Amino acid sequence: LQAQNVAAARDAVMIEESIQQAVMEARNLAHGIFPVHVDRNGLSAALTDLASMTSRLTGVSIEVKEAAEVYIDGPETAMHLYRIAQEAVVNATKHASAAEIIISLDVNDENIVLSVADDGSGLPAEQFRSHGLGLRMMRHRAAVIGARLTIESPPEGGTMVTCVLPLTATA
Questions:
Q1: pLDDT for 73-105, tens place per residue?
Q2: Nearest alpha-carbon partner for 38 in 49, 26, 25, 51
Q3: CA distance linking residue 73 with residue 131, whole number of Å
Q4: Could you give the count of Cα atoms lying within 13 Å of 149 in the half-sphere of its Cβ?
Q5: Contact, 168 vs 104, CB < 8 A?
């Protein structure tokens, strides 16, 4: 339409943008509700898929760093960790206007450590005590699996969400 200089071309562009926005919102909703297959070896793969899909939909650069192979025996535990990461990524893209997000997964002698760091606007101090559903759900999920969840706003900016799960809780 634009090539033919049709007056309705502008309206067609607006309709296309609206449709693309609706598709993105539907995908986000579906991924938030639809169960993700996270098995014993699949947490890292699921986090990589989350990063790829979210980056493609939002344009935000998202990297997954796995310092060591992480094996989780309980699929429920892996699912809770995945959902914590998912909520942190959604918050960073939707509320903090982050341009870059790094999802890290590591294991040491005592703990599995999942962290999501972003370079967004950070979380205001009053938000740390927030009763918002997303933050409450992350805290609840961590408590259910016996993990410790911290949410910090470093002095250099952004937000760091860290979930530390004792290895004894995964047995």
A1: 788 899 899 999 999 999 899 888 899 999 999
A2: 49
A3: 31
A4: 23
A5: no
Give the C-alpha separation, 16 to 6, whole Å: 16
Q: SS3 helix, strand, coil % of the chain, rounded to 5?
A: 45, 20, 30
Helices in the chain by DSSP H: which ranges?
9-33, 43-58, 75-94, 125-128, 133-144
Give, in degrees to the nearest 5, the angle at Cα 117 between 159 and 140.
Answer: 75
Q: For residue range 48-61, what is the model confidence (pLDDT) as tens digits?
A: 988 998 998 889 99
Task: Decide if 103 contacts 89 (C-beta within 8 A).
Answer: yes
Tens of pLDDT, residues 8-18:
888 888 898 88
* 3-class secondary structure, 10: helix
Residue for token digits 């200089």?
5
Question: What is the model's pTM?
Answer: 0.76
Contacts of 23 (CB under 8 A, 6+ apart): none
| Confidence at residue 123, expressed as pLDDT on a 0 to 100 scale | 74
d(CA 57, CA 59): 6
